[in-house]
Amino acid sequence: MKCFLSVRGRDFDIDKFLSKSPWGPAVHCWRRAAPIESEVGQKLAGRKTLRDSGFQLAASQEGDDSEIKTQVRQVVRFLERHSRELRRLKRAKGVESKQLNFGIIWPRNAAIVWRLFSAELIRSAGKFDLEIEFSVYGATQFRPLRKKPRASSPKKKSSLKGSPATNA
Fold first, then answer.
1. How many CB atoms sit inside 10 A of residue 59's CB?
2. What are the helix (H) ranges across the chain?
């Protein structure tokens, strides 16, 4: 899975910010008051339009979801390489939320899942007022579901003498 930098705000002018940003072509954007595309999304949100504007940018590459250490190392490098742009983002007007969202898939048959975020990551994210979010996804969302078993034929009553079904 990847780690994403997500930025949003009700009055955040993403077009103005991204027009001067090297991130422009690499981001997924949304704009306040734009229609929520799907009926499912509308039902979940309880409204038909978006409440804020923002963007999402990959801060790490696709990797093994069970090994978050790789994501953490890549994100620390991302924060170092993009420190100038992150300082500009920190000063941007209208930004209400800046998050690094790390995702993992919940391992099958696991009772508990924990991952360690290094002090280096915490310090690096803190320099830019970035929150850290940890999203855990169910394994069935990313792996094919097993086929449902076929419906079995109705059970026949036992015709054997002496069986519990006939000794009532």
1. 22
2. 14-19, 39-45, 68-81, 83-91, 119-127
Q: How many other C-beta atoms can be found within 10 angstroms of the C-beta atom of residue 23?
A: 15
Cα 74 to Cα 70: distance, rounded to the nearest angstrom? 6
> Which residues on neighbouring strands pair with residue 49, listed in sequence order?
35
Sheet holding 28-30, edge to edge: 28-30, 53-58, 3-9, 97-105, 131-137
Distance of CA 168 to the CA centre of its chain: 58
Q: Looking at the whole model, is its pTM more than 0.90?
A: no
Backbone angles phi, psi at 113, to 5 degrees: -130, 130
Tell me how long the chain is. Answer: 168
User: For residue 70, what are its two tokens?
Assistant: 């790789």
Q: What are the pLDDT digits (tens) for 97-148?
A: 999 998 877 777 777 777 788 999 999 999 999 999 988 777 665 544 444 4
CB 25 within 8 A of CB 18: no
Q: Residue 101 in contact with residue 30, Cβ under 8 Å?
A: no
